Amino acid sequence: MDKMTTILQPDHVTIPGVSEPAKSRTTRRVRGLSDRAIAWLFVAPTIALLLAINIFPLVWMIRLSFTSLNLSMSYLPLRFVGLDNFTDILSDEDVWIRLQTTAQFVISSVALQVVIGFGLALLINRQFRGHSFWTTMILLPMMLSPAVVGNFWTLLFQPQIGPFNYLISLFTGVPPSSFSMTGEVALAPWTIVLVDTWMWAPYVMLICLAGLRSIPDYIYEAAEVDRASAWRQFWSITLPMTVPFLMLAVLFRAIENFKMFDMVNLLTSGGPGSTTELVSITLKRAAFEKWRTGYSSALAIILFVTVFGAANIYVKVLNKVKQR
Amino acid sequence: MTATVAKSTAHSIVESTPRAKAVAGSLVILYALITILPLVWIVATAFKSQSDAIAYPPKVLFQPTLEGYVNLFTVRTRQTPDFIAKLPPPETWYDKLVRQHDMVIAGPSKVVPRFVNSLIIGFGSTFLAVFLGTLAAYAFSRFRIPLADDLLFFILSTRMMPPVAVAIPIYLMYRQLNLTDTRLGMILLYTAVNVSLAVWLLKGFIDEIPREYEEAALVDGYTRLQALRKVVLPQAVTGIAATAIFCLIFSWNEYAFAVLLTSGEAQTMPPFIPFIIGEGGQDWPAVAAATTLFVVPIVLFTVLLRKHLLRGITFGAVRK
What is the pTM of this model? Predict the structure, then answer.
């Protein structure tokens, strides 16, 4: 496992795993417990809990992924099948289609959120009157439970009674009950993107705002002295200096979207057909509906390795960007 | 220092024209209004009658009623105004309400036990996570721990796993330990998920407290633990509170584990709300009422947390 190492410019951006500048650490003995004993005593419970609830199950899952265990037929003896589950998954065309669906969702959703979030941050950074109140309003959706969000958007999207279709028909004249946002193959994926963006564009906005506010004034002042146009200032100062923050936002959003389960489960539960079936939904079906535990463990491991690998590669790129 | 960079906020250039400000302001306000419109609709739906909630075209103006809330909380079985009219006197406030507003009671509802579960699991796991997190964060911040970076990264990486994937082995493990669908099981699980956030956030907060304070206390003859309790904790109290709220929001909002690992006994609000069924399908006013009640604390917390929001949602990776 590679470590996410040093990152990003100003020192108020650090990334998970980064080493802090060395401090004068004194290991001395004061009355009472020694520092070393305290350090272990304080860290041990957390590590123990994570070992019990994360690592032990993970190891168990790795073991299960080599078996044909099916919980609906758990009377069968545990049979080891080697890499069969993995080869099954990787040669299954359906799984590849689900991965594609997931990738499309992650890419379109994150791209839209970055555009909207960055745009909003630029606007809010102008510090108009009442900007902090409206910022808080914009931030509300991302604090809500994805389950609740998925649920109430279901109401808003009801073709017969929902206000969404009604509003669309007011502006376009399309009869409201002639289309269903969550029930149509052509619309459902975009519905997921729409709701996800509604919820998470504020997140990107918040990170971008931190980025914009970290750019020191004097750089703009210097640019002003050089008579750089506003446009030029944006392209050669604002954007490049915000890029590391943008990339951080992309990293966090992409990981979250890749794992996304809750909102989709409630909005479309993967349908219609399997147009919005993200891998996490496939995984849930295999594990908790078909009870194919061995198979789904293998799938879970493939997913974990994918997220982990992608995140590590991305962080390497991020470091390069920083060093440039 | 982190704080100083962040303070150099206003750019002279961006500050410039009042017209640009006005344009920016109105665009942001427009976006904000569109953003909160769905929420406003839900809050309004909670005060509609069943028939108003499913009327077409959707009703913007309506006669407000408490039907949704009454249906959400009622423990009685189905009742109609006719049924209540036939009841012998004396009439309770409840019967009166139902008769006066011509309500149809769909009950009985399980919302109270579900809400209690959310509270117990939310506060229980938050307390544990913050307690363990504070200790670990203090140790990571102040002592030389072998492989500290690897340990911190390990703590973080436990969050990268999709919950659906972790739920499989947890489900099997819990079945062996008789922890499935128990509050204790959910508390332990949410504590494990929250503790990673707590360690990361609190480490950031404690790092910002100058070490000199404790060192002075140690020189004065305090033990480490005394110095921690009397010097560091009081300084870290805002950070600890913010961390606690972030943990609470997480357990309050969590859905994937809840829906896969609980079915009754320990079920929390998120998996419960979508399945509030009235007669003839979903009872939208009751669903909206439950959503409103569920969301109110989050809205309050969001306002309270404004300053720490960025830290909390990025694992402390970005500090303001």
Answer: 0.86
